[in-house]
Amino acid sequence: MKATCMTSSSRRRPPTIASNNLPPGLRSETRLQALKRWMPVIIWAGVIFYMSTRTFGSSFSNHLLADFLGFFHVEISHHAFYLLATGFRKLGHFTEYGIFAIFLYHALGDENRNAWNSRKALACILFAALYSLTDEFHQRFVPHRGPSIVDCGFDTIGATLGIMVIYLVSKSLSNQERKR
Q1: Nearest Cα to 161, choosing from 83, 84, 96?
Q2: How far apart are CA 139 and CA 118, in angstroms?
Q3: pLDDT-based confidence at 7, cuts 50/70/90?
Q4: Domain spans of the chain, in order of start
Q5: Residues 50-84 pLDDT 10s
Q6: Chain centre to alpha carbon of residue 72
Q7: Cα–Cα distance measured from residue 48 to residue 93, given in angstroms and rounded to the nearest whole number
Q8: Per-residue pLDDT tens for 122-131?
């Protein structure tokens, strides 16, 4: 009868995992390749965090808008300026989080990063929404800034619009490939 337990002197086999059975060309990417994919996400998250500081508050965007209107010699009422400035700031939320969602979509790994994947798209929108909540929480501690759940909504809409851009581009590319 043979013993079935292994002792410290017994020869051990390396564990078999799915990636060990793949051909060399299909093995998982290196850490450097993964870092290259995630670097835009990390940098853009830092940009969003920095733009939530006191430097980029409403007074900054109001100043930018006033300079822009002054350059074109446009004069508007205070109420119209307020509405335009609010829209300008909300457009910033859309843009920031639209870009963030696009970076996230391309960073999340799968076989074909450019093909449409609805689960990955939803995960990107949810992750962007969660990051938005942390960003608004951060603003709670910034002088002259404050958290706003409404801004989280605008951020999530922006992330959704970014994902819609990916969807439209991927469908357009797949239609072009079918025509060939």
Answers
A1: 96
A2: 32
A3: low
A4: 29-179
A5: 998 877 778 888 999 999 999 999 999 999 999 99
A6: 34
A7: 9
A8: 999 999 999 9
